[in-house]
Amino acid sequence: MSTSNQEVNTSTPLTSTSNAQTDVEKGRDKVQVKDYRTLSICSIICGLSCLGIVSLIYSVKTRELNKRSPAETSPKAKEYSKKTLKWGVGAIIAWVILILVFPLLMGLLSYLLTFID
Question: Which GO CC annotations does the UniProt entry carry (predicted)?
């Protein structure tokens, strides 16, 4: 045995961290688009519920497209996912703005009514 200047490779190989799941039976990768179901439900409870319902509708459509075509990511599913996120966040932001603006408007109205007397 001769000793050579070979270095022992003790580093760990890089691993991929993606959302892809392998379907063992069919050998295909399933890429799921996020459907933001939790955000949709929270936007109904903690935001403007009419906007939260729109978000939930897009969330359901995204989940159905994920079930229907698991082999490839549908561009329509990505579009619905983006709309779900926008409507959900918009519902919560609109509710926060409404909560902040309403007391200010009531104070302004009260101030203006003092001038009438």
Answer: membrane
In terms of Cβ atoms closer than 10 Å to its own Cβ (0-12, 13-18, 19+), residue 63 is buried
CB neighbours (10 Å) of residue 105? 9
In degrees, to the nearest 5, what angle opens at C-alpha 80 toward C-alphas 74 and 84?
145
SS3 sequence of 74-90: CHHHHHHHHHHHHHHHH
Q: pLDDT by residue (tens digit) across 60-80?
A: 999 998 888 665 668 888 999
Q: What percent of the chain has pLDDT over 90?
A: 53
Report d(CA 109, CA 74) in Å as an integer.
Answer: 51
pTM beyond 0.70: the answer is no
Q: Where in the chain are the domains?
A: 20-116
Identify whether the C-beta of residue 47 lies closer than 8 Å to the C-beta of residue 38.
Answer: no
Type of residue found at 86: K
